[in-house]
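Question: Now follow the chain.
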Amino acid sequence: MKTISTQMLTAKVSGVVDFYGSVSVMREDSNPTTINHLQADSPEGMEMGHVDLKENSDLRRKLSVECNISKDTDIPPVLIIHGTKDRTVNTIGSTDLYLKLKECGKEASYILIKCRPRRRRIHLPSCFKGTGCFH
């Protein structure tokens, strides 16, 4: 068995891939199929301590990725992938994140996959072809 030297290993993150991620709760329609979206018993409300997030914009900002990025934030390159027919998480959250990353001078790529619902299988290599995201 070949031994790998620990000097060759690193925990450094080289990049982030956000694939259909729910990244923001700043907009009322960010999770259209969650009936109790932003309420205390919603997934995001429970995450923040069973709080009604409609009434607490400070906690909404803490939970939303785009509100926590600045020019000084050290962040590796980000690739965001989202399907245009996703009815669970609105693509506007991914768009807001991408725009914030670019506004702050961060390396980011955004791929909107047309007509792809959330649960459908996507052939990833064809999605990345020509994007320059992976070498």
About this structure: The beta strands are 16-19, 78-83, 108-113. The radius of gyration is 17 Å. The chain has a mean pLDDT of 82. The chain has four helices and three strands.
